[in-house]
Amino acid sequence: MFRLLPPATLGALIFTTIAAAAAAPVIEPRTPRALTEEDTAEVVDFIVGNAVFALYHQTGHLLINRYGAQPKGMSEERAADFFATLTLLEPRSGTGDQTLVDAIDSWKLGGPGTLSIVADDAGRRNPHALDETRTNALVCDMVGADPEGFADIAEAAGLDPAARRLCGATWKREQAAWKAAAKGLPPAPAKPQTFAVAYETAAPEDETAATILEDNGVLEEVADNLAERFAFKNPPTLRARSCGMASTRFDVEANELVLCYELSTLHAEMIMRDIEQRN
């Protein structure tokens, strides 16, 4: 679904940009080496997957704020996560599954310190950064949707066996709650709309992430999917830009789903650090 950049080109971009970064944690490989094709694919997939999940999460906030689509008993953050998960699991696809795994891994790779890393110079934290509770809920959603198919994900995530047995019932209950809350959402259109997308110029330290996002058509991919699902009277713009912190948001006043380049740069650093530690 996403086009990969040529391995040699991406390898040069990743190492050059991450070493030059000043506004984010600097990851410098202890033993610099050329990226293999497998490394390249993993880096790109991780950046893209987390960007897609973030955009669907923010779409959940849009649906909640504009149409009141918040299931009873769910916090707004949980409801936004559930919309993203439901979107990626229905219909099932290998890409959708991997996107959810990437989102889960972003917390696993960052660990508890991720919440303190994802902050601007004033110390403002990103309220949308995944924590352990939300990550386990994502794993439970996947297991509830397909207990056998996602058993290895539950094992790798260390989901408690007792909690895992309840995931099927939880998934069904949440689906019913979402269906009730979604009654006021726009129907699927007879003809898909055109959503505006915009990739703003990135700061030098975020150019690698910006290149990967734009060359893989991340905004367009999400926009096309939403255009097929909802007949919005006022479709949101999907915008990638520099924000001053690693975050995403639904900008109510501007009617925009915003993906911050800094977040994708952070994801690049996370996966590069993991690749470094494996070799």
TrEMBL record:
Protein's name according to its UniProt entry: Metallopeptidase DUF4344
Domain of life assignment: Bacteria
Keyword Signal attached: yes
Leader peptide range in chain numbering: 1-23
Organism: Kaistia geumhonensis
Keywords carried by this UniProt record: Signal
Pfam family, one: DUF4344
InterPro entries hit by this protein: DUF4344 (IPR025644)
